[in-house]
Amino acid sequence: MSVTVRFAPSPTGQIHIGNARTALFNWLFAKKAGGRFVLRFDDTDQERSRREYADQIEADLSWLGIKPDLVVRQSERFALYDRAVEKLKEAGLLYPCYETAEELELRRKIRLSRRLPPVYGREALKLTEEEKARFEAEGRKPHWRFLLPNFDDDPFAPQRTEIKWNDIVRGQQTVDLASMSDPVLVREDGTFLYTLPSVVDDIELGITHIIRGDDHVTNTGAQIALFQALGAEAPAFGHHNLLTTATGEGLSKRTGSLSIASLRETGVEPMAVASLAVLIGTSEAVTACRDMDELASRFDPASSSKSAAKFDPAELQMLSRSLIHSMPFEEARPRLQELGIKGRQAEAFWNVVRGNIDKVPDAAFWWKVVREGPERPALSAEDGAFVNAALDLLPPEPWDRGTFAAWTDRVKAKTGRKGRALFKPLRLALTGLEAGPELADLLPLIGREGVLSRRP
After folding, report:
1. How many domains does the chain have?
2. Last residue of a domain, one of 308, 338, 372
3. Are 178 and 297 part of one and the same domain?
4. Domain that holds residue 412
5. Position of motif 'HIGH' region (predicted)?
6. pLDDT tens-digit profile of 267-325?
7. What is the pTM of this model?
């Protein structure tokens, strides 16, 4: 059976780098196995789900280099879930419960006061048909719980029932079903909680491997039991460590915390985001990968640590700069053309300025400096006179990288200036800044006429 994975975001906000970590783990796992990647929108919450969020998520994944083989929406698949509900009811594995939230909370507190685990006691299984009818007459609607297979004959005498799996990330894992409450699968209003639609879709879509955050480890036991109750073999599971902020706080897509969209808008390179999202919190050194093939070669889900990994935006900026500083012209060309940087000088220009910019759009500033010159710099009268004298000594064209040294040697001999006193006024006059790309490289791009036009 070929590998099929899924990334299943809820379109209730923008995805952040922590969500991207899960998407990339699945994408790279499928890529290495020659498998399929399914994007499944868990949009059963009709009130909070928005199509614009779903569209944004698809755009964010595409920017990162993730191209789904299939896109499905749970909001279009309710008939599948209804059939699963009826199957579970017929098997006696889904039972109605009429407790209110307040009643459940009171029972939880009583169990805790008796030093008992706060597990649902299956009181609803004891209800008679008359009692159920009375609740219905009162206007109560039931929620429906899945009866976990953690007993022999008596559901009120649960016993240790171990669900084991060899986790792709964490190795051998065990969950005791007796330590869990029967999960609610259907709410009072008939809407579905996450577990039922997720398991039904995983079965119907042929998902073979589920890789997600380690906050799902415990409920994996109940989900494996539900797979089995629906007559299916459970997929393989993997649970990677989560990302937090540098201060240890969890990331939230509803607050826009470190969203992929905001990172893209700031000009961060997509492979910087992908590299950090995948490699942080693993035994691999966090360095920028040039493309997905290189990242896939370094990806090993089992190398993830079991503790949360702290994400530092400064590290992301560093990775992004390293990618830009080594980016070949052919890769940068389409983006440079969008900035108006084109023509016979474009390649030489890019190779000169890429080491002095933090993001590709910054190149537009230096293109303007080369083509049009800087704003008139504030030079002292003495420095202005020096620059004018230096411009009188400009050698004739053609120019190359050695022209600047030849020119400044003549200027030094004529004026007696050297070091900072020589180079700073020239740089200010030519670029308007005290730092930037090597003047030896900029000079041939500006040209003799362009240099003379910058006379103070």
Report:
1. 4
2. 372
3. no
4. 381-452
5. 9-19
6. 999 999 999 999 999 999 999 999 999 999 999 999 999 899 988 889 999 999 999 99
7. 0.90
